[in-house]
Amino acid sequence: MNAPQAAALATSRLRGAMTAPRATTAATRGIPGHAGQLVASLGLRVELHPACDPVGSAMLADVADAEMQEVRAVLRLVLGVDGPVLDLAAGVGRLTVPLLALRKQVTALELSGDVIARLVHRLQQAPAALRARCSTVQADMADFRIDRAFAAVVLGGASVSLLDGADRMGLYRSVRRHLMPGGRFLVSTVDHGAAVLPPEVGGEVQAPSGRSYRVYEYWERGAPTWTLTALSKDSGHGPVTVCTTTQRVLGAAQLQVELERAGFSVISRTQVTEPGQRHPVVLIEAALPDAVTGPALY
Q1: What is the mean pLDDT of residues 231-240?
Q2: pLDDT at 2
Q3: For residues 260, 261, 262 and 264, what is the CA-based torsion angle, rounded to 10 degrees?
Q4: Strand extents, DSSP E, 111-192
């Protein structure tokens, strides 16, 4: 998984609604809401990073590590399949490492060579037997070819929303080429608009690394995109690292329709975050039609 896709999960822990403040676009660095006002108040102390650079991706990966509900849901489903697993947009291993711990053979696919290097470094700290079960591939999840088939293909962290419509069709074609008979495609998305809340919510996230962040998400009902902003803990002096990313809105219903049009049958659709969260994460389990032995469950 890459860090932008993982950020969607972390936001399910956020609490507290707030009204959007007034500030100039230049002062807020284009960040909406209270997060933008806070960035403006920090002035030159802000070190702003996109989600795709090494600092931003590491920060969002750390934030996402605070949310384990999707990881547990994926592991429960993967336990039921027999064979190797392909982890798309693997990032630094948020899903890869737990899948390896299940004694699965895992191929981690990631677009960024720098991120793959960080994953490899992380695996070097793991037991040799676990490392031996992992291989890495640098490729685009929207169009990839690997010389093997998989019992499960996993795309977590709502990373599917990083792709536009054409690239999502490419993703579905690529997954179809690589699924074993009876294989499963597990893909998550953030179901925007499930709760009636103000445009912005935010709160503090304590990551397993011990670092604390202020994390804000901003979405106006009906808007095609939403914005996530994370700020490192402010000691009152010195630089404050800020990462912001804007992602597409791709609801579970739309994702299911796309999967079915691409030739998949949906087996299950599960909300993996607690009810009442700002943007619930939904995990969809799909298969090719000849692998489905019973009616789809919705």
Answers
A1: 88
A2: 41
A3: 20
A4: 134-138, 150-155, 179-190
According to DSSP, residue 162 is labeled G
Contact 37, 23 (CB under 8 A): yes
Q: CB neighbours (10 Å) of residue 182?
A: 15
Q: Cα 218 to chain center, whole Å?
A: 17
Least confident of 9-18, 95-104, 136-145, 220-229: 9-18
What is the pTM (predicted TM-score) of this model? 0.81
DSSP per residue over 242-263, as a string? EEEEEEE---HHHHHHHHHHTT
What distance in Å separates the CA atoms of residue 246 and residue 217, rounded to the nearest whole number?
Answer: 10
Contacts of 108 (CB under 8 A, 6+ apart): 87, 90, 93, 96, 116, 119, 134, 135, 136, 137
- Map tokens 């009442």 to a residue: 276
Q: Structure tokens of 290?
A: 């000849």
d(C-alpha 59, C-alpha 73), whole Å: 23
pLDDT digits (tens, 9 = 90+) for 63-79: 877 778 899 999 999 99
Question: Angle at CA 127, nearest 5°, toward 123 and 128?
Answer: 85
